[in-house]
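Exercise: predict the structure of this protein bound to inosinic acid.
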Amino acid sequence: MPAITLVGAQWGDEGKGKATDLVGGRVDYVVRYQGGNNAGHTVVIGDQKYALHLLPSGILSPDVVPVIANGVVIDPGVLFEELNGLNKRGVDTSRLLISANAHLIMPYHRALDKVSERFLGKGRIGTTGRGIGPTYADKISRAGVRVQDMFDTGILRKKLELALNDKNQVLTKVYNRRGLELEPILEEYLGYAELLRPFVADTSLVLNRALDEGKTVYLEGSQGTLLDIDHGTYPFVTSSSPTSGGACAGSGIGPTRITKVVGILKAYTTRVGSGPFPTELHDEWGEWLRTQGHEYGVTTGRNRRCGWFDAPIARYATRVNGITDFFLTKLDVLSGLERVPVCVGYDVDGTRHDEIPMTQTDFHHAVPVYEHFDGWDDDITGARSFEDLPKNAQAYVRALEELSGAPISAIGVGPGRDQTLELRSLV
Ligand code: IMP
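Solution:
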């Protein structure tokens, strides 16, 4: 039975929480496979708004098993803060499963994330400061601490000793900061161990067995394609693989089991942090999009950078992820525009490019070439089918579909659970 992957098709914040919530009742497992509490998913249910950072959005659907798989990095303090917050609001979180192989964000990772950004000055990446990059760096250098290490005090102490020998040299001698002491960290993490134990499982085994039994598994990507460590706007990226290939490595599910890849695509473009963004608007229209679309980060509260839809980016996302369906979000935000600009290519130092340029230098020089589509005035937040949309909105959707290279199977017209037009089933 199917494993379905959901990926952000732009720079994240496309509205993935809403998409996952839409299919929540129709899938059995919702899995996070990369990233950590740098993510921010907002889900609105009735008059309740939930902002999730680390937990899979499936945690809000009572019939779903939410899974934090091996590719995620976990800050246990944040995990329990989020779980306790949901418990207080009456959400049952006992079904959660956490991979024994997931890596842990340690206090020195957070410290190094912040201090290295400060030292980069104008060259900073604009990270969320949650310790994501340094944790993945340790994972790749084989110096990381995993969930399972918390259940063996001897191992945990040994790993911490080795890590602190190194990190404290860097913190004190390179960055002129105070070093961290081992005992308080050990005590804190051993405290988390007992709380974590009931959730820990061999999640790859659980998920593969579930697929064998005909269950549906939904792999929920965080961030977005252009923030991918390999396929994004490096170095202005996150340190994991949000693209669909990352879903396999990050969950222990083979690629042959994935039947659909759903790309979440905002009807315009946003980005937080530094890095190239050809359609970014520095004028009143950027502010207009930010206000209309409430484009303020869920995780950091930072203003999101805003710009028009960029078709080469959507096509690129289709290509590197093998997207089979798009979920177009926030179409309602564009209501009221006389004409809607869409970037269909770039001018790079006098040369026309229809696709994202191969090099970072060229991408930094890319000036959007726009096509303009007729806008619509009507409020579309009450639309419940494609035919309810004004003709110009329908034409805009069809044009994006054509330009993006995959069918648009769902359209978001507002933040609520019922404000989604599903043209084809996403499951
Ligand atoms: P990090 O993931 O905290 O290391 O940050 C690296 C880059 O990814 C920065 O530009 C962040 O703003 C961006 N980023 C990380 N998580 C998200 C997200 O969930 N949405 C949008 N941007 C993100």
